[in-house]
């Protein structure tokens, strides 16, 4: 390591990191072989997969000793009884935290049309014994107004233990978001959602779909930096995570959207 690098890293504390995975075939084996045993893994719930795949992968990963956080998508849960059964399975597997999210499913499968009603039932059924994460949107949401997002966060805050942000590419936007929350009296720890090393084309198509295109444009407009981040075949998160770690009020940790690319990645404990 050169002296310049040492100087540049001085005072930089590495933020704790969690890794989000998609429950595709083979991902459990990949996690076992690629990730340190104590890693915290969060497991997405995609509309076309259903909650069953999220739970099956989560239970399997917990069996391997990982600290696991299943995503419970409100619109994919068929009934309060199904929710109670999922929570029993979590408890039996030693899973201590879940992520309560509305989910992208167009049609609501049961009684929960948003994460607001879901989080209340999770808290009630578990008797407050589970930690719960909720989503935050530093760049807003393509279909939900800022006011609605803030009202939604306020109503969930008393049941929630952390906010995990939507994928974002700008430390400045994350910082602004955290200070907005604080000025609104929301004091929950904020974990910054950061894309892992992902093929550039995949990132661009997904970012457009989920409404985070503007911060991608933000980095692509940053001249040499933008080119460095997006000009190769893969996006690289290192620059962003380094910037986040030196913010005046840094996030509580990094939530890494891995896109199931687990190779060459060793998270620090969360
Ligand atoms: N940030 C993330 O990691 C993920 C985000 N999502 C997306 O985020 C959305 C929001 O999820 P949550 O933050 O849990 O909020 P939510 O789905 O619980 O909704 C928050 C508030 O906005 C309203 N709302 C929801 N969808 C709306 C729409 N299409 N038009 C108008 N109002 C709407 C709800 O009624 C509620 O009052 C999901 O539906 C999905 O599109 C999905 C998976 C992961
Ligand atoms: N609106 C929204 N929905 C989400 O599901 C979501 C967000 N936002 N923000 C952050 C993360 C990122 N997520 C994802 C979801 C899917 C892929 C993905 O690679 N999907 C594959 C299909 C996988 C499969 O079906 O097996 C793809 O090719 O699109 C990546 C990141 C999930 N999360």
Automatic annotation (TrEMBL):
Cofactor(s) recorded in Swiss-Prot or TrEMBL: FAD
GO cellular component, one term: cytosol
MF-aspect GO terms: FAD binding; methylenetetrahydrofolate reductase (NADH) activity
Gene Ontology annotations of biological process type: methionine biosynthetic process; tetrahydrofolate interconversion
Isomerase keyword on record: no
Alphabetical UniProt keywords: FAD, Flavoprotein, Oxidoreductase
Entry keyword Phosphoprotein: no
SUPFAM superfamilies xrefs: FAD-linked oxidoreductase
Catalytically driven reaction(s): (6S)-5-methyl-5,6,7,8-tetrahydrofolate + NAD(+) = (6R)-5,10-methylene-5,6,7,8-tetrahydrofolate + NADH + H(+)
PANTHER family: METHYLENETETRAHYDROFOLATE REDUCTASE, METHYLENETETRAHYDROFOLATE REDUCTASE (NADPH)
Protein family (similarity comment): Belongs to the methylenetetrahydrofolate reductase family.
Protein name: Methylenetetrahydrofolate reductase
Species assigned in the record: Arthrobacter psychrolactophilus
Record lineage: Bacteria, Bacillati, Actinomycetota, Actinomycetes, Micrococcales
